[in-house]
Amino acid sequence: MKQYAGYDLHTHSTASDGALAPAALVRAAYEAGVRQLALTDHDTLAGLDEAAREASGYEDMQFYPGVELTCIWRGRVIHLLGVGIDPQAPVFVDYMKELRCLRAARAEKIAERLVKKGLPDILEAARKIAGSGQIGRPHFAQALIDKGVVTTAQQAFDLWLGAGKAGDVKAEWPSLEEAVHLVKSASGYALVAHPTKYNMTFTRLRELMDAVIQAGGDGLEVSYPGVTPNHLRDLLNLADRKSLLVSAGSDFHSPAQRWTALGRFSAFTSSRHLLSCL
Ligand code: AMP
Ligand code: MN
Ligand code: MN
Ligand code: MN
Description:
- This protein is an alpha/beta fold.
- It contains 9 helices and 7 strands.
- The chain folds into 2 domains: 7-89 and 175-276, TIM Barrel, CATH 3.20.20; 95-161, DNA polymerase, domain 1.
- The protein is 39% helix and 14% strand.
- It has a 7-stranded mixed sheet.
- The chain is globular.
- The structure holds adenosine monophosphate and manganese (II) ion (3 copies).
- Adenosine monophosphate binds next to helix 5 and helix 6.
- Adenosine monophosphate (AMP) is lined by residues 17, 42, 70, 136-138, 153-154, 157, 162, 253.
């Protein structure tokens, strides 16, 4: 069974809520020993050209265009990775424009809800932090820190932005099925990101994977920061039983987040690895 090392198939840049620009991310990944890299920003392809250009400067580095789509399954928000996509696929390009509007409108709603709770209006501040990138709750978290409302992003999520809090605004995200179709129409592999992070039982997770299979999707992540050895084993078993592809990545956002580093996650071996298909 092939053992892979020096790869990372789940990362973020300033095109969404990451701290490093796409080219800087590629450089940092290369320096960390990553030789097979996917950039998977939230709901945008905007960083892919820059990252691909930078990666082409390294002879021994393989770059895979990717995306992390926010979608809904049975009322829950699920993150679906599209890896090895064609960034020029017309349906995808059109849909990304829609997602930009969706996230912009959601940002207004988040700001409004926080104001209703007596917080300062941080819409402009959050927009500024997001810059040209796809705006999300982490930008609001930073704005709340800058305004002195909270001291850490964790606190911002715990009090104001996390599940069930005022700033936890669900947009009209696509359904899981639509998200899978989008990825497939762009010739990518569709995989459920960080499956143990949705507060789901394994029974529910198996149902989610059945829905992914039904929709034509490919697999799930099995190794990422926070996954326990037991989870890793259970996820690998689930993939075997359902003939799914498995993937892994650091979900890197920022060098300031000590619990994520590029290319760092528990090692495992599998004959069903996405890397053997890319
Ligand atoms: P959004 O895409 O706007 O729904 O924001 C989700 C993003 O917020 C995730 O991709 C993480 O980067 C970040 N996030 C979620 N929960 C937390 C948390 N508790 N602390 C810090 N960042 C978080
Ligand atoms: Mn994120
Ligand atoms: Mn995610
Ligand atoms: Mn991610």
